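Attaching the record inline, Q. Sequence:
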Amino acid sequence: MILGAHVSITGGIQNAVVNAENIGCETFQIFTKNQNQWKDKTFTSSEINSFKEALNSSNQYKDQLASHSSYLINLCSPEPEMLAKSRQSFLSEVHRCDALGISFLVFHPGSHLGKGEKWGLKHISESLVWTIESSPESKVKLLLETTAGQGTNIGYTIAHLRKIMELVNLPERLAICLDTCHMFAAGYEIRGKNGYNETMDLIENEIGLQYVCMFHLNDSKKELGSRVDRHEVIGKGNIGEDFFSILVNDERFSNVPGILEIPGGNDMFNLCLKQLKKIRTN
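Structure, as predicted:
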């Protein structure tokens, strides 16, 4: 597995590369704008060139980089104005990734806000088709992220992700990001070889492991099936280091990025990356 972390772009988009190098990343994920504000962001040619020059200078981060979309976006909002705003914001995320040469855009599927899961799955899929049709030249792959199942969020079951992929039916543009904390909180017993194998077999049968293009590597503060999204440092939570040892050494994911999103800042990112590299034997 290719190991990295979510890094800051504070002070300029090019600083993401420096931050990633400083903590020992082999790949990285960023926000291309403030994730908690609607205000849009368009990078200047100078900013884009600075980012690409930093990448070239590092001679390490050529592809498989990721951006995570804004937390405000809801691709199945029942409010027409909010849905239109979410779609446009999501499309802008795609355009920024294309401009920067970022391969993947990770996103939370959406929240049905009481309309029901069937309704939510249909409307998320319609939003994704709209986005893809509105960006026909884009090279960015959209990655549906598993969710913990809090509130009315869609995406906490593998069946949800399968249904969205079926409805969109554009596998060249749409794939999966598995968040280990979210899956565990949603009730998937991923610990131990039996639990791990059963979960991966389910994903293979429902979707196909070839569509798993990224992992978010997070331990969980909360217990199995809590449906509460609380990330923890690797090995310090309820999932435990043994699971991550199995995952990062699974040859089926040898070229798949694994991104840390744990608490503790850069120092903890650095420690956990060293930890994961140490237990990675392949």
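Residues 80-100 form the longest helix (21 residues). The chain is about 40% helix and 15% strand.

More tomorrow.
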